[in-house]
Specification:
With about 350 residues, this protein is an alpha/beta fold. It is about 40% helix and about 20% strand. The chain is built from eleven helices and ten strands. The chain has a five-stranded mixed sheet, with helices on both faces. Bound molecules: 5'-O-[(R)-(carboxyoxy)(hydroxy)phosphoryl]adenosine and zinc ion. The site of 5'-O-[(R)-(carboxyoxy)(hydroxy)phosphoryl]adenosine (KG4) has 20 residues, from helix 6 and helix 7. 5'-O-[(R)-(carboxyoxy)(hydroxy)phosphoryl]adenosine binds next to helix 6 and helix 7.
Amino acid sequence: MKILAIETSCDETAAAVLEAEGGLANPKFRILGASVASQIPVHAPWGGVVPNLAKREHLANLPLVLEEAFKGRSGLEPDLICVTVGPGLEPALWPGIEYAKELKKEFSGAELLGVNHLEGHLFSFLLSEKTKKPGEFKIPNLNKLFPAIALIASGGHTTLLKVESVKKWKKLGETRDDAAGEAYDKVSKMLGLPYPGGPELEKLAAIGNPKAINFPRPMLADPNYDFSFSGLKTSVLYHLRDNSNAKKEDVAASFQAAVVQTLAGKTERAAKKFGARSIFLSGGVAANKNLRKTLDRMANKNKLEFLAAENRFNTDNAVMIGVAGYLAYLRKKRLPLRANGALNI
Ligand code: KG4
Ligand code: ZN
């Protein structure tokens, strides 16, 4: 099956063309073309994403990313057109959906399918192992992976799930306030780092002492799978206010240690409680080396598989939308083709 996928839920305009086979039992993917246009320079002066600017940029960038994704493949007729319908910023989602509807007119033989962005992140674990063929990924042995505990940590969400199969999963908990990526972005702003904050803060943290300041590990001891990062953010704010000589790299490293230990601690507890055989990590924050290393070590210690795709499939992209779209199509899941900013998983 040939799939064309489009993603515009936040500040990345992305398109991808992929080939999928194997069905729900052995899903396998090959990327034929993929492109992401980042809007960082547009939003940077505002210190965060401005929804109407994102909309304008998506409209301008969609034809360009599509052309790039189709490069060398002119004449390819997709069987399925996948587009993110939520969650995300509604003014950003609309142009993607409208564009996909126009493409459906051009490729009249294709089915048009709305995709949940969070399912895109969740299923990016299927892209964690490359084969020798360019763009092709190994099918993980699904029989050995489930049940799995999946942690999605992005700018908008921090969600822990129990995954039984590619057809069945259950949300165990999520953040009650700020998402992990949002906390990274806000704390990096306090430290005077440029937008987007996550990667910048990680760089600074790498040269700091993670034990310098004992920031709270929010809700780590609570007997549930929810998160809360807003109080931690406030602790950092107070620390900076009360310690004018604070070393920024130590604040960054200590903040990161609190976030990573909280995420890893709750994930480990869920894995033990539900007898998981593997851990999946996804979402923009999964690009963080410290978090990946900590979860990998925890998985090893508990004799679990650890699956996380490379960074370009964790930060927002269209390949993961094509992957989740293929599975949703097979599950006969049909979401309404309209922007739903508050869609959950
Ligand atoms: O999944 P994503 O690209 O967009 C959403 O769906 O939200 O996630 C973006 C988030 C941002 O908050 C960004 O700061 C964070 O992921 N992020 C990171 C890193 N790279 C991106 N956070 C920590 N360390 C990183 N290396
Ligand atoms: Zn995302």
